[in-house]
Amino acid sequence: AVFDETDSIDSHVEDTLIAGAGICDRHAVEFVASNARSCVQWLIDQGVLFDTHIQPNGEESYHLTREGGHSHRRILHAADATGREVETTLVSKALNHPNIRVLERSNAVDLIVSDKIGLPGTRRVVGAWVWNRNKETVETCHAKAVVLATGGASKVYQYTTNPDISSGDGIAMAWRAGCRVANLEFNQFHPTALYHPQARNFLLTEALRGEGAYLKRPDGTRFMPDFDERGELAPRDIVARAIDHEMKRLGADCMFLDISHK
């Protein structure tokens, strides 16, 4: 989001359109860029603690870092575990909200569609069937409205930093219920993860490259300038393809991320 006084929403929009390679819906981009700051502020109001620092003038402000495709520092973060900070804060708020009931150890199996159970009127979703892992039974959850917030399907790929639950179940449930599904070819891969042949890989934050880390071949030479003038701060799809290209070209198991010069 635009938090730096030297930045602008127009610049954020332009960066996004360029990174989108002509595929973006400009109206959607403008809407998101214009409302991003208020959404981040909402997270702050809920209790999310983003890192701050003291400016030369003595004032405290949020510490902003830079990521691929951005021409300015726009990334608020909580050390290198921003997702965990956001998730734990929101889960805590939900668990303590009087109007929210959380079903733990429960997995949605399918949506309940009115015409499939013989209800009259317009076809609509009226709830979900849920597998209760404690009781090992399928339970019926009726609802006036259903929102699917299940993530994507990137775990279908062998190499990904996405969790095992990114299996596409929510998309499949929506499809079976008759929802229109689009743009399934767009799976974003985070370019950098720790390589260990005998352990589970984990994501290496993009902020490393934002703070000046270099991507290098096994011989220690940089390769990103050969692919994009923005180097390591090119958009993620370009960086991921460049890493993949160099690994295949050289027959290498991995590339290297070097921030030792900082």
Automatic annotation (TrEMBL):
The residues covered by the FAD-dependent oxidoreductase 2 FAD-binding domain are: 5-261
Domain of life, source organism: Bacteria
User: What's one Pfam family here?
Assistant: FAD_binding_2
Name the UniProt key words of this record, in alphabetical order. FAD, Flavoprotein, Oxidoreductase, Pyridine nucleotide biosynthesis
Q: Catalyzes what?
A: L-aspartate + O2 = iminosuccinate + H2O2
Is Nucleus a UniProt keyword of this protein? no
Enzyme class, one word? Answer: oxidoreductase
Which InterPro entries does this chain map to? FAD-dep_OxRdtase_2_FAD-bd (IPR003953), FAD/NAD-bd_sf (IPR036188), NadB (IPR005288), Succ_DH/fumarate_Rdtase_cat_sf (IPR027477)
Q: Which GO terms describe its molecular function?
A: L-aspartate oxidase activity
* Name of the protein this chain belongs to: L-aspartate oxidase
Species the sequence originates in = Escherichia coli
